[in-house]
Amino acid sequence: MAITTLTDKIREADLDPSSRVTLFMEEGDDVFHYLDSYKHDFVEGTSLAYELAELVSDPRFKGNECIKVMREEGLLDNYERGLDEFHDYVAEVITENWFDYDWIETETEQYDYKRGFLTARVEFETTIQELLNSEMVLMGWEARVQHPHGTLEIS
Description:
Order of helices and strands: HEHHHHEEHEE
Strand content: 25-35%
Number of helices: 6
Radius of gyration: 17 Å
Helix content: 25-40%
Oligomer: single chain
């Protein structure tokens, strides 16, 4: 049995190719929110920065907002071209700077004065056409598209 990918599902939905699509992914777990570094520790332990870096560093999504900000802020200035490690470098930049640039959103539900549940989420916006042209598999991602009949979420 063939696996139906997110891209396949979007293609089957027959959406307007110029429509904006927001890809999103989230992870969550129990945390001790009384620790100052609990958000940073949690994000470092997830694959969110790596997954986001895969999209924003892909030449098929050239000129996306995240990469633009990184370039404008000089966050990519120390990358040595030609190393074929750009994706890893971008993932490291996201991991180190996500809080300052809102690349990863977090929300904590507090159970009591020290324990809670943290959800971290990344989003990437593109068009249906760019996404379909990319032919990316996008494991773990979901999509949200504004449609004349409301918001369509595809997982």
